[in-house]
Amino acid sequence: VAQTITALPDAFSRYRTQLDDALRAAIGDQDHPLYDMLRYHMGWQDETGRAIDVGTGKGVRPALCLFACEAVGGSWKTALPAAVAIELIHNFSLIHDDIQDGDKERRHRPTVWYIWGHSHGMNAGVAMNVLANRVLAPNGSSSLPAEMALQVSSILTSACREMIEGQVLDLGFEQRSTVRVSDYLTMIGKKTGALLESSLHMGAVIGTDDSRFIKAMSAFGTEIGFMFQVRDDMLGIWGVQDKTGKPTGSDIHRRKKSLPIVHALETAEGSARERLLSIYRAHKPLTETDIADVISIMDELDTAGFCSSLAKEHGELGLQALSEAELGPKARAECEEMTAFLLERDY
Ligand code: GRG
């Protein structure tokens, strides 16, 4: 996996302070064990409740939402409730995903369920979801006009439903011996793409009523959603633990049907195919040799090259879709910069 040469785009950092303040306000400071778990997950507290600041997630979705609002001519602060809601929904999905996958670590820290157990992990995830809905409720803390809050909330709810559909497909793939690249693309379009698309879609809807801009932003989001998950899958195999928080080869260890393995299973022939199938069908934990063999088969098949090209292709499709609307030159340049960054990110 190539080193990141692109610097963090300004759009991913310039909203950060206000976004963090708004997220903290949405989660609140109640002295109650539920909120301790939420604040722990966000990286604001340690597991004993002491305040810390270890840095949260990358905040890609809220940044895209605020950016989209600004890029179509709106004032980005008006989109803060949508940005907060999307980040809370994303974190709800991560808390539940960690339970479903049995992951003990996320963002270099023990996961919520690993500390408090499955039941509390489920409670924490659902609470994140409920708080997200409350931020956008017309009579809630949202500063959006009621009609706008309703419209944005409906975009977010649909995306959340699609995300869960995608997660169900993904879990189903683990039980199947054959998954085609096309099945995989359908799955990630839902699991990851829907939320990324809705980030830009909501931001654009808040910033303008010009449907060309809204459509262009939404189409851009769909494509960078594909790109984002393909890159995520590459990092799950060839990523470096210090950066990603996951050991190199971690998705092979878990027999996840991520894109690299889907590609390898679809294209390998002869003894390589037999070897892959025997590793993926066995019911015992994978050995270091199994993992090294899978990686060497992927090398032979240039699986990394296939994944990179696919990611790049979707990035280009996204930028093409944007050309349907005439964004200002600064906004256009920033879209290109964000696309390049997300294509090459190593964390
Ligand atoms: C069971 C009701 C119910 C819901 C669960 C678990 C779930 C629905 C959906 C999971 C969706 C999921 C985990 C998608 C993966 C998307 C992805 C690439 C996550 C990593 O996103 P980053 O890199 O994370 O933006 P950070 O840490 O930066 O926030």
Q: Figure out the total of helices.
A: 16
Radius of gyration: 20 Å
What is the mean predicted local confidence, pLDDT? 94
Bound molecules: geranylgeranyl diphosphate
The assembly state of the depicted protein chains is single chain
Helix/strand order: HHHHEEHHHHHHHHHHHH
Percent strand equals under 5%
Distance between the termini: 11 Å
| Overall geometric form | globular
In the predicted model, the low-confidence regions spanning at least 5 consecutive residues are: none
State the major sheet. Answer: 2 strands, antiparallel
Structural class category: mainly alpha
The strand order across the widest sheet is 1-2
The count of β-strands is 2
What is the helix content? 55-70%
Task: Explain what this protein looks like in three dimensions.
By secondary structure, the chain is an all-alpha fold. Helices cover about 70% and strands about 0% of the residues. The chain is built from 16 helices and two strands. The protein has helices at about 15-25, 35-40, 60-70, 80-100, 110-115, 120-135, 145-175, 180-205, 210-240, 240-245, 250-255, 260-265, 270-280, 290-300, 305-320, 330-345; strands spanning about 105, 110. Strands 1-2 form a two-stranded antiparallel sheet. A hairpin with a 2-residue loop joins strand 1 and strand 2. Helix 1 (about 15-25) packs across helix 4, helix 7 packs antiparallel against helix 8 and helix 9 runs antiparallel to helix 15. The longest helix has 28 residues, at about 145-175. Geranylgeranyl diphosphate (GRG) binds near residues 58, 96, 164, 167 and 192.
